[in-house]
Please model this.
Amino acid sequence: MRGSGPLEGSVRVEGAKNSVLKLMAASLMADGRSVLRNVPHIVDVEIMSDLLTSMGANVRRTEDHVLTIDVGPDLIAEAPYELVEQMRASIAVLGPLLARAGFARVALPGGDNFGPRPIDMHIAGLEALGVEFHSAHGYIEARCDQLTGNRVVLEFPSVGATENLLMAAVRAKGTTVIDNAAREPEIADLCAFLVRMGARIVGGGTSSIEIEGVDELSPVDHTVIPDRIEAGTFLAALGVAGGEITLEGARADHMDMLIRKLGDMGMRVSPSSDGVWAQSKGRIRAADVSTLPYPGIATDYKPFFVAMLAVAEGVGIVTENLFSGRFRYVDELVRMGADIRTEGHHAVVRGRPRLSGAPVRAPDIRAGAALVVAGLGADGETTVMDAHHIARGYEHFADKLAAVGAHVTPS
Ligand code: UD1
Model:
């Protein structure tokens, strides 16, 4: 791609990757046909489809953004290494399999390669519901005769642990309370899906969720919420390239802190009748950013802030509070002429008027997309290698950017 701007026009925001993967896993909990709408065409959905298929479900795209999942009575309660290693979110099948079969054998997760990403909170929470764990040969085996409701206080509001506990608790005997639960919009979407299936859940999307176990769940038809990270990616592209765009289908109320921060940086972002409208005039201003669990600024936005700050006026400090080792793309940005110093979980970014196009390598989904965003603010040509990472989480990313005027061509 080449330096671009101003951007102009409309971009459609797809369904949320981090929601749809969990909803697909949750579909295992009811026999029959569940229908998911607003399902993005991304590789991670294909990996989750392969995983469900390997367990005996029948997963099909019946229309463009519609996925149909048929679940029969006999499921193979196992998530094999070949699939789990490709996508850490595969661990989301643990709760549903326990709820359904009282047994699960799941390969220990791999996925994005940023720092250690343990599952100790998933395990401790499920143990409190009566599950016994045994690990051997790279797999964990989980077993319980009867899931039993309990109060679980999470050490940290982990998204994945909250989701697995929720899904198990829905079929437990009695009441479960998850305190210090994650509050991400994707958790609220999962709760809405489960409630539609027949679950009894109060407080989804807040830090205290109460679940009363039920005996039976039915398949449902559900529309996935829009992807706030994809929306944030296009906002970052606008910050770098300038212009005025509409994000069709995006929800401003899922991006409060992001919108406030972009406002501090000189952008205008507001809800519109069909999504979110945004404008960026002139050079953006630097600001300090700290990632936090929702409603704080998502860790997934971090590489986009680093890319924006690389061309902003002034100096900004980005602090990562969730994952270690998520600054690997910084070396690639430095190769593009960015002035960035990292120290522990901080990055100090001194803005330059322009970057300099270079060949760079995408290390993961979001950092890969952030390198594309940075390329919009670079003189000359930038080539992002290993761009297959981007396709794990973005539908037609390059084409969508090109449609609003960016000089990007898919490889
Ligand atoms: C999800 C998202 C990911 C996002 C993250 C935080 C999906 C598919 N992925 O990941 O894009 O960046 O939320 O918003 O939805 N931790 C433990 N022990 C555990 C669980 C987590 O120590 O048992 C730690 C993790 O290593 C990490 C932090 O807690 O440092 C947050 O992890 P968590 O919220 O669980 O993220 P994921 O669900 O893996």
In short: DSSP finds 14 helices and 24 strands in the chain. Residues 18, 21, 89, 117-122, 156, 158-161, 182, 298-300, 322-323 surround uridine-diphosphate-N-acetylglucosamine (CB under 6 Å). The two ends are 10 Å apart (CA to CA).
